[in-house]
Design brief:
Largest sheet: 6 strands, mixed
Strand content: 5-15%
Oligomer: single chain
Helix content: 40-55%
Keywords: Membrane, Signal, Transmembrane, Transmembrane helix
Strand order of the largest sheet: 5-6-2-1-8-9
Pfam families: HupE_UreJ_2
Protein name: HupE / UreJ protein
Distance between the termini: 38 Å
Shape: globular
Number of strands: 10
Organism: Paragemmobacter aquarius
Order of helices and strands: HEEHHHEEEEEEEEHHHHHHH
Structural class: alpha+beta
């Protein structure tokens, strides 16, 4: 019974974790050389920077100690937030790096564009622009920033075969030719997007993790799990592809609450039944279609590299699958391997854990509906 209560408490602790409305997304940086100047435009969430949130240490601003400061900044009018960021820039600039031919260059802030307030439950994507001098005869540039600012997608403009890459938090890019020609090969695009997909499940995809755990807790036997995971994988692969191609678009205000509802459904059914019903794989498939749209929205924010669209898309999906496999493997090693065959598994572990998962899903559902 102690193990059961411990499992329940751990799962209930997830209630303190946030929903995805304030999810931390990578910043998008576009750069281009014009004469002796390199211009960099970064679309990002300025509130997180100004509030002092370590965007590497949290997947959602609601989980940060500075969450209250972030929320107050999120409600500021554009001019007020711009003023706050301009005051913050002198502290940020030394931690943003533009390295040309191996030498760091001074940065000059040239613009801050902040959208209207809008829905305060959603991140606001502002744009900052800065320049760096390009010494005569320079051939390459490296771009990066401190880890606390999170992941960064950088895209080169104005040249043939431009560079397009994803940088983990704190990483510097490899030297990029200022004259172009560094576009990723299909193999490089495939490999580069695997960790992006994995990262969206572990650690950032808590709602997807809970859904997969809901599938796991129905039964630790392999056959029911394979049926469910196969249906889920097939479904989200279809809508991930269609969403990334732009054929299907559903607003996050619809997708996110239904994803939360899907968590509640599978968890409640775990409590009401002790085996795989005939229609559960079909329901899981339907919910998988919506999870795929959630994955596609992330790719929409990050973008896929020109000339490597399909390899990157496949790599992202492989990363998602590896993330799901990691969750299932961890659940099996921690729970299924030791307790799955016990006669009291369902009463002491499956039902309490499923109840906690259902509670979290219900909390998120109403939070996302009500904003």
């Amino acid at each position: 019974m102690l193990k059961s209560l411990r499992s329940l408490c751990i799962a209930l602790a997830l209630l303190s974790q946030p929903a995805t409305a304030h999810e931390v997304l990578p910043a998008i940086g576009d750069f281009q050389q014009t004469g002796e100047t390199l211009t960099v435009d970064i679309r990002t969430n300025l509130e997180g920077f100004v509030a002092g949130i370590d965007l590497t240490a949290t997947a959602d601003t609601n989980a940060a100690p500075q969450a209250a400061d972030y929320d107050s900044l999120r409600a500021l009018a554009p001019q007020a937030l711009e003023s706050r960021f301009r005051s913050f820039w002198p502290r940020m600039a030394p931690r943003v790096f533009v390295r040309i031919d191996g030498a760091d260059q001074p940065l000059t802030l040239t613009g801050v564009s902040v959208p209207e307030v809008g829905d305060v439950s959603l991140p606001r994507a502002s744009t900052i622009s800065f320049t760096a001098p390009v010494p005569a005869g320079a051939t390459s540039v490296q771009i990066g920033w401190a880890a606390q600012f999170g992941a960064l997608v950088i895209r080169q403009n104005g040249v043939d075969k431009p560079y397009d890459g994803y940088l983990e938090a704190g990483a510097m890019s490899d030297p990029i030719s200022l004259s172009g020609g560094d576009r990723m090969s299909p193999t490089q695009a495939f490999a580069a997007y695997i960790p992006i997909g994995f990262d969206h499940i572990v650690p950032k995809g808590l709602d997807h993790i809970l859904f997969v755990l809901g599938l796991f807790f129905l039964s630790t036997r392999l056959r029911p799990l394979l049926w469910q995971v196969s249906a889920f994988t097939l479904a989200h692969t279809v809508t991930l592809g269609l969403g990334a191609l732009g054929y299907v678009t559903v607003p996050a205000s619809i997708v996110e609450p239904i994803i939360a509802a899907s968590i509640v459904f599978v968890a409640v059914e775990n409590i009401l039944t002790d085996g795989l019903s005939r229609w559960r794989p079909f329901v899981v498939f339907a919910f998988g279609l919506l999870h795929g749209l959630g994955f596609a929205s992330v790719l929409g924010e990050i973008g896929l590299p020109e000339g490597g669209f399909f390899p990157a898309l496949i790599g992202f999906n492989v990363g998602v699958e590896l993330g799901q496999l990691a969750v299932i493997t961890a659940a099996f090693l921690l729970v299924g391997l030791w307790f799955g065959a016990k006669p009291w598994y369902r009463a002491r572990i499956s039902i309490p854990a499923s109840g906690a998962i259902a509670a979290v899903g219900a909390f998120w559902f109403f939070q996302r509906i009500l904003g």
